[in-house]
Amino acid sequence: MTSRPMIAALLLAGMMSSAYAQPPLSPKEQYSIDSKRAATRYADDKKLCAEESSSGARMQCTRDAKSEYDKSVKAAKAALKAGPAKQAACNDCAKVLSVNVSEKAGEGSALGVIAGGVAGALLGNQVGSGHGRELATVAGAAGGAYAGNKIEQKAKSSKVWTVAVQYQDGKQASFNFDHDPGLMAGDRVKNANGSIVRN
């Protein structure tokens, strides 16, 4: 029977999405959102339960869905009664100011220089005759070496995501990532292991 894992996954997704709501909502607004989310989830769960193959499985699934709905509503009411949570000062907490993507040039190696030089020399050797051919060969080798180095640098280039943040005390810092960190301006983050993670 797949109803319990599905209900748990939907509940977890709902809790995670409400955890990232910004800016903080009033207790009544949060209760309204949480109760609507619980009702929507309950309706979706009942549709899933209707697809169960036997009547016993459908009944059990419906009972599980109602139980999860009741827990969600109870948690929302408890949060409403508790009022807004007072957040402790967080020296490692910050707000994302901007996320910029740039291209980091790769490093060329001797291989690119040598391959480009050989290709350039071969092409240069096809031009002219006598001393002209020798000059063309040398010029082709030099040009090919330069071009080969640049081509290799371009092939090894990579993207860098630079995330600028501002801490609660007003200080600013930036962090570089070699992959998309999934952050955007306005997101709340905190320091973790020399980098930042979503708060």
Automatic annotation (TrEMBL):
<feature type="domain" description="Glycine zipper 2TM">
    <location>
        <begin position="111"/>
        <end position="152"/>
    </location>
</feature>
<keyword id="KW-0732">Signal</keyword>
<feature type="signal peptide">
    <location>
        <begin position="1"/>
        <end position="21"/>
    </location>
</feature>
<dbReference type="InterPro" id="IPR008816">
    <property type="entry name" value="Gly_zipper_2TM_dom"/>
</dbReference>
<dbReference type="InterPro" id="IPR051407">
    <property type="entry name" value="Bact_OM_lipoprot/Surf_antigen"/>
</dbReference>
<protein>
    <submittedName>
        <fullName>Glycine zipper 2TM domain-containing protein</fullName>
    </submittedName>
</protein>
<keyword id="KW-0472">Membrane</keyword>
<dbReference type="GO" id="GO:0019867">
    <property type="term" value="C:outer membrane"/>
</dbReference>
<dbReference type="Pfam" id="PF05433">
    <property type="entry name" value="Rick_17kDa_Anti"/>
</dbReference>
